[in-house]
Design goal:
The complex is a heterotrimer, with one copy of chain A (285 residues) and two copies of chain B (224 residues).
Chain A: H1 3-14, H2 50-58, H3 63-73, H4 83-99, H5 106-123, H6 132-135, H7 139-160, H8 189-203, H9 205-208, H10 213-228, E1 235-236, H11 246-262, E2 266-270, E3 277-281
Antiparallel strand pairs in A: 1-3, 2-3
Helix pairs in contact in A: 1-2, 3-7, 4-5, 10-11
Chain B: H1 3-20, H2 26-30, H3 41-54, E1 60-65, E2 68-73, H4 78-81, H5 94-106, E3 109-110, H6 111-118, H7 124-132, E4 136-141, E5 149-153, H8 155-160, H9 178-196, H10 204-207, H11 217-222
Antiparallel strand pairs in B: 1-2, 3-5, 4-5
Helix pairs in contact in B: 1-3
The chains are: A mainly alpha (285), B mainly alpha (224).
Chain lengths: 285, 224, 224
Amino acid sequence: MTDDTMSNTAPAEVTEPAVASGSADQSGMPLARVSGKPLVDLPKDLYIPPDALAVFLEAFEGPLDLLLYLIRRQNMNILDIDVSEITRQYMDYISAVEAMRFELAAEYLVMAATLAEIKSRMLLPRQESEDDEESDPRAELIRRLQQYERFKKAAEDLEEIPRMERDTFAGSAALPRLPNSQPHPEVDLKEILYALQGVLMRADLFTSHHVEREKLSTRERMSAILSVLSGDSFVSFESLFTPEEGRLGVVVTFLATLELIKEQLVEIVQTEVFGQIHLRARAAN
Amino acid sequence: MNEENLRRIQAITEAALLAAGKPLNLDQLRELFDEHERPARQVMEHVMCQLAAACDGRGFELKKVASGYRLQVREEYAPWVGRLFEERPQRYSRALLETLALIAYRQPITRGEIEEIRGVTVSSNIVRTLLEREWVRVVGHRDVPGRPAMYATTRQFLDYFNLTGLDQLPPLSEVRDLEEIGREIEKNMQAEIEFEAGGPAPEPDDVAGDDAGDADSADHQTLH
Amino acid sequence: MNEENLRRIQAITEAALLAAGKPLNLDQLRELFDEHERPARQVMEHVMCQLAAACDGRGFELKKVASGYRLQVREEYAPWVGRLFEERPQRYSRALLETLALIAYRQPITRGEIEEIRGVTVSSNIVRTLLEREWVRVVGHRDVPGRPAMYATTRQFLDYFNLTGLDQLPPLSEVRDLEEIGREIEKNMQAEIEFEAGGPAPEPDDVAGDDAGDADSADHQTLH
């Protein structure tokens, strides 16, 4: 992006001061113009210092930009280009650049050819009968120049819009200590089942274990009993039962207790025959 | 909602905008409140007005941009604040700005279409820079051979340039209708002939006359 | 130094502190001014007092810290401001879900037993996460060497999954036929991944809801 700094200064340095486009209105123009004999002074032939040429070319965003510059410098209206004069000046630049053996973008050469063609067609005698809009060979060039110029202007407008880090800065303040409130992930029960299925498939649990629905509530009760027994002390066997649960609940608790004893998770103590049975967690010792 | 409550919402809003350091929209701001205390949109809009007023005479202002509201340094203080930063603010080349302008005003647009209007190749660097800055993005592919990417500007582009929408971009200058140009040229020619023949000269105004039938005036107006 | 001048220095100071995003000391602040307009240290100190007072009742306050002054969001607003930084909750890993499933179905169960069935180590993170979430708890220790903790699910686990008891979990024999569920979950995950990969675009429309034009909109419509 070296060309941006040059773009603003180079044309003025290299040539006589460019006429601002704003002043290039019709007031200074003759009331009429004769082809080949405009009634305004032609600018003196361009002189470009050789070492400035590269800079000069970089200052332009292509052939349309160069053409616009030439037109503005001539005080011409885009709609009324003197093609021969513009073509002559354009060719001067191109040949100067080529003589210096600077690399020239292909687009510049294409434009040179286009200008030459328009110029030659302008020289041909006009055929009055043909439809007018199509017959002016300059029309397409004028359309492109106008189109390019409006976006060139739009780019200049864009440059003027106040923007961040140049005309303003986002305001931010330091943060106080913030509460640590990392939300928990959501889990669907199905995901757990799916995960379990994966485990079971791998472990081949389907064949080696028979886990029944009843068994599951037994295991839940085992956990419940274990948490009751989490202390160091003995708990009476009866206190584990909740009569309100009914017969089924009592059976489940009983099965759970048996399973806990079998798995040696609890120890069971009875000090006398038919006396109180006490349990406590083995691990609690 | 009583005064005290409004003041509290305003302070929380200011705190949140300064904590975020980037624009937040009304709903993002409302989301900060628990459901039972969440201000209605109208209340929030009122609070934003109050907050904007409360920034009068301070170093910053409340600015509405595309993504929401932002507290930012007042432009008039940028010369001093800018000295905080060693690096000069980045300048963008004309090539980049012209490309960006074409994407902004003509979106969605392909690289080929940009090149056609600018008359030169658009370098890959420029496109990459614009994409990296997240000012433009690819919004699709034109259904022509090669299926070239179509570019459009982003919300970040508007935020960066302090705009709330594309309609805030400066209007494009007018382009004269080609048919009109043709007629004018014809008229000029006619006048020249008459001039040579000693006839009356046309009014200069005719040449640059206002064009009601502007082909491109459609987007000229919509950009206002 | 007159009042107006002081106010200007105060505004510039405030602007600079908000733009800097880090503490600035008095000399750094004074450096922002050209030599001929640079306030004396005492003036600057006075300005800081004024600025601190001007932050009364607002969302932020002036704090003096080791390296200078900074503007900071008031702590009382932290509960609201903190929500800005809440991250989207992550998903739990497959390993965690498998561990949870085994604890649910095989409780009370030790870590070693889970590892035996899963065939891989259970990381401490997983166990900690499940304990922190209060979905599992230690119900005792198995009386084997090392006295490993035995895990069981909790009431909160049942509540979260809307179960009244573990017996409401599908029996293992049915878990076998979960292909349908599996496909469904895969599909959901895929959709989520795509949503997350969608980039910044899928911000809710309400961002531009209160604006005239939507920056991100690809077509010319928004220009109208």
